[in-house]
Amino acid sequence: MLGPVTSRILGQNVMKNFIRNGSHGGVPGENLPFNIHNRTRLTINFLLFALTGISSPFLIVMYQMKKK
Questions:
Q1: What burial letters (b/e) apply to 42-60, b meaning 16+ CB within 10 Å?
Q2: Checking CA distances to 38, which of 1, 5, 48, 53 falls within 20 to 30 Å?
């Protein structure tokens, strides 16, 4: 197993390479596929995403029961 000093050095090297290769060093929202600065749009998109996932099983069961 690696000792605590060795793992710390490896972790530092990984972060240095990550920052050098295109990361800006932890800007919030940088790695997300959507914009988090417009709160209204973010809220609407989240609600559509969550409600679609929650309601789809119920809609499928309702469709199957009505199909007969």
A1: eeeeeeeeeeeeeeeeeee
A2: 53
